[in-house]
Amino acid sequence: MKSIVSTPKSKGILLVLTGATCWGVGGTVAQNLFQMHHIDVNWYVTVRLLCAGILLLLLQLFTPSRSQILEVWKSKQTALPFIIFGLVGMLAVQYTYMASIDHGNAAVATLLQYLSPVMIMLYMVLQKQSPLTAKLIICATLALVGCFLLLTNGSLNQLSVSQPAVIWGLLSGVSAAFYTLYAVRLLNEFDSLVVVGWAMVIGGVGMSFVHAPWKIHLTLLTPETYSYLLFSILIGTLLAFWFYIASLKYLTPQETSLLGSAEPLAAVGTTVLWLNEPFGIYQWSGTGCIILLIVILQFKRSSSVSA
């Protein structure tokens, strides 16, 4: 019997779930850095993008297609899309999400960002690239309801955050939708390491004009701060974005964005285990919605393969 992960679709599921989980945990760590260690959000985004991007490109050097690293810049036809993706995609989705966390909290920022699956679904339907099926509507509903229950415990009162947090969070949803859709064209020509690596470097260089990476009060960087930064760069950024983008080789943008609902699940799980927050009936209900979403998508693929 073949392993479940042996099929391309199942590999895509594993990649996006792992990436989303890393992203969710990274959001909780970022909130800790902003609120407990007083790290400036502009400096944080600059450093995390530059460090993670350089590391990804270094990894590409050890692959057979290492020549792709320079091929990106050989013509305007390839360079311009990378610059657009790095600034309007990577930098935008990173900064808006982190700014929403900085002005509010990781829960609200994640909830607002997860309007992106609905945005992607509507865009592809309007562009006549995908039919509006009942299954898509059910999946989008499960994703939104699951995120809402997980992150609010069923109470709208917990969404009382500042106006900037809401604005940045909504912009994060738009950025995430663009990021997911635009990446597909680049993945058709280049490896995921090249796409994500250069996007992060480009975004980091762009952000350096706002806040240079060397402008930081060293007294803020305690050993604990360094450990959180290292985790955020390697796990919450490098692995998260690499795996998420790589999943688009095997899944549609709708499926990838919907399965990305594992991010709030990871964020809540981290809060429960790390901060000892209670996990109520609404959170368990939200967990059930997301698990059901994953089962529905997997069932759809299994049926297609067996047909």
TrEMBL record:
Topological relation to the membrane, as annotated: Multi-pass membrane protein
Subcellular location as annotated: Endomembrane system
The EamA domain, residue ranges: 11-151, 164-296
Annotated InterPro entries: AA-Vitamin_Transporters, EamA_dom, EmrE-like
Keyword Transmembrane helix included in the entry's annotation: yes
Keyword Signal among UniProt keywords: no
Pfam families (alphabetical): EamA
SUPFAM superfamilies attached to this UniProt entry: Multidrug resistance efflux transporter EmrE
Spans traversing the lipid bilayer: 12-29, 41-59, 79-98, 104-125, 132-153, 165-184, 193-214, 226-245, 257-275, 281-299
Keywords: Membrane, Transmembrane, Transmembrane helix
Similarity field: Belongs to the EamA transporter family.
Protein name, entry field: EamA family transporter
Taxonomic path: Bacteria, Bacillati, Bacillota, Bacilli, Bacillales
